[in-house]
Write a structure and sequence with these properties.
This protein is mainly alpha-helical. It has eleven helices and two strands, in the order H-H-H-H-H-H-H-H-E-E-H-H-H.
Length: about 200
């Protein structure tokens, strides 16, 4: 959320320094490197075949994309490249939420055409009505917090706005979000924060 506010120009560099974002990113680099080394240790011959990109890796790429001036730690670059390239190959296996994270990270990472392809695939699953706005029927509740419909919807809104913004589309997605608030709660505390962020920061 700090990174997203920075993109919107709400927080300044002094605040970021206090938040110690560089050391946080270095910690995440180390976590990715350790996971990669453990993968190779457990599967020395076929680690490329058994490896997969999960939500942790997708969040990592998306967070890093918010701070392009911070280079990936040298010891983690091999791991970064391995999982990043794997994500580019397997994005069709991701959930809607995962595709949204991937599209954002790829777009900011310079793979803009791939990001646009992913966004178009996201659009293909959407539904739009005059009453409800734009939403996704496949966006259903799960056990994990990122499977909350509100959190997923806000991330999809962000991906479409970052990669290929359309004013009418954003308005229609906001309509669905506000309808959910009017008829029921926004899932949980994290979903509330996500919804408020996207309503305040989106164009």
């Amino acid at each position: 959320n700090v990174g997203r506010r920075r993109k919107a120009g709400i927080v300044d560099e002094a605040f970021l320094q206090k938040a110690q974002y560089r050391s946080s990113l270095q910690f995440l680099d180390g976590e990715l490197r350790d996971a990669y080394e453990e993968l190779k240790r457990l599967h020395p011959k076929d680690y490329k075949e058994v490896a997969y990109v999960g939500m942790n890796e997708l969040y990592y790429f998306q967070v890093h994309s918010l701070f392009p001036e911070v280079e990936v730690d040298a010891k983690a670059k091999e791991a970064f490249t391995f999982y990043y390239e794997l994500a580019k190959k397997r994005w069709k296996d991701f959930s809607l939420y995962g595709r949204a994270l991937a599209a954002i990270a790829f777009y900011r990472g310079g793979d803009k055409e791939l990001a646009k392809t992913i966004v178009e695939s996201i659009r293909e699953f959407s539904t739009t009505t005059d009453e409800m706005g734009m939403f996704w029927l496949k966006n259903e509740s799960g056990y994990l917090w990122h499977q909350a419909p509100i959190s997923a919807h806000t991330r999809l809104m962000e991906a479409l706005e970052v990669v290929d913004p359309k004013v009418q589309e954003q308005d229609e997605m906001r309509l669905w979000l506000l309808n959910q608030k009017r008829t029921q709660n926004w899932d949980n505390t994290i979903a509330n924060v996500d919804a408020l962020n996207v309503l305040l920061l989106s164009g």
